[in-house]
Please model this.
Amino acid sequence: MHGHSNGKKLVTVRIIKHAFDFIHLLTGEDSLQVLVNAIALVEAAFRNMKTTAECLAEELISATKSSSDSYGIKKDKLECVAKSNR
Model:
């Protein structure tokens, strides 16, 4: 065989197979189903048609109301829980 990509496809296939094996071992679920679920979640996340300005405005409003929808509030609560677990 000649060419610049000899073995790269085989290496990639092995890495994916090992990743799927790890997924099955760690979750006990079918690896392909986990992949399908992840793809569906990513597609749902990127269907958001809001502008950056709208997202920023919602985040700022949520933060001032101490709403759990705010990323900053969620992160702060997570850090408090982590600190209490130490």
